[in-house]
Design a protein that fits this description.
By secondary structure, the chain is an alpha/beta fold. It has a single domain, classed as Glutaredoxin (3-Layer(aba) Sandwich), CATH 3.40.30. It has a five-stranded mixed beta sheet, sandwiched between helices. The longest helix is centred in the last third of the chain and has 15 residues. It is globular and about 40 Å long. About 35% of the residues are buried.
């Protein structure tokens, strides 16, 4: 079921205001994740309370870190159905989860934060986990 845009629009804007690009079609997801260099952080955004009170604020804090992914993008589960399905094809080894955050290098996931790693943590703990992943995977693409 697709959520009405008037419900999810403000939740999308919480990330796009930070410079996070939306990928609303499978083609946009492919274009971004098939890049051969750099790292991409893909946020699977959602309407739930843990996305609003924990994930999005944690992502906002993490993006202030000195080391960040080359590109940061999002799909909205329940809004961008086809794009979300395409991201999940890239994440086949992981169960579907929203909200969630994945880091990709050369089209392959190298880090995954699932809903169960978000819903009982506060924004600063989520940011700490993400910035540790940034430090590990985003500094040099040749690792």
């Amino acid at each position: 079921m697709r959520y009405p845009e008037e419900f999810i629009g403000p939740m999308r804007e919480e990330l796009t205001r930070l410079g996070v690009q939306e990928t609303r079609s499978p083609e946009q997801v492919d274009e971004l994740l098939r890049k051969e260099d750099g790292t991409v952080m893909m946020v699977i955004n959602s309407m739930c309370g843990c996305a609003a009170g924990r994930a999005r604020p944690g992502i906002a804090l993490a993006l202030k870190h000195a080391v960040v992914p080359t590109e940061v993008a999002t799909v909205f589960a329940g809004g961008d159905l086809e794009a979300t399905a395409r991201v999940r094809e890239y994440l086949q080894e992981y169960p579907p989860s929203s909200p969630s955050v994945a880091l990709f290098r050369q089209g392959r996931p190298v880090f995954m934060m699932h809903r169960h790693q978000i819903e009982y943590r506060d924004a600063s703990e989520i940011a700490d986990t993400l910035t540790a992943a940034f430090d590990r995977y985003c500094q040099d693409s040749s690792d």
